[in-house]
Structures are given as structure tokens and as C-alpha cells.
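Entry for the shared binder. Reason: the reviewer on the internal report wants the predicted structure included alongside the sequence.
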Amino acid sequence: MVSPRGGVLNACADIAGLEAASALLAVVGSVLEAGEAVSDAERAAFLEHMAATLAEVVSIAANRLPVNAGTHAAAERLMRRA
């Protein structure tokens, strides 16, 4: 079952996604501030998680846009770039 756009379950999922993104952002910020104390391999370990989180946040933002021909065309252009 897919929850309807703008429904309560959809909003709860968006909130959970944004909370996870905020937590990951704080962790990555701390890792970057550590500078030389963190190896390149340790920094790289966060890259996949950051990309997945960014994709989720972009999806949340896209779901908040009004649906019309202009936003649909813009979304298609963005997806072709990715």
C-alpha cells in the first residue's frame, strides 16, 4: 500500500527522513572538523550514506512541489543529470 501524497503516513516518513539527514549531517560535520585526525578512508565511508541521504531529501522536497507540467519537466531534467 502506498500512502497518499500529503497524508499523515507520508508526512511521518518525511519527518523521519529529515531527522536522519540532520543526524548524519552532524556526524559528517564532526568528522570533517577533525581534519587530519580522520583518514581519507574514514571520510570516504560516509560518502555512500551522504549520497543516499541527499537522494531522500531531494525526494522529500520534490514531493512538496505542486504537480504541474513545469515541475514535471524540471524533475526530468534533474534526473537526466544524475
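Summary line for the report: DSSP finds four helices and no strands in the chain.
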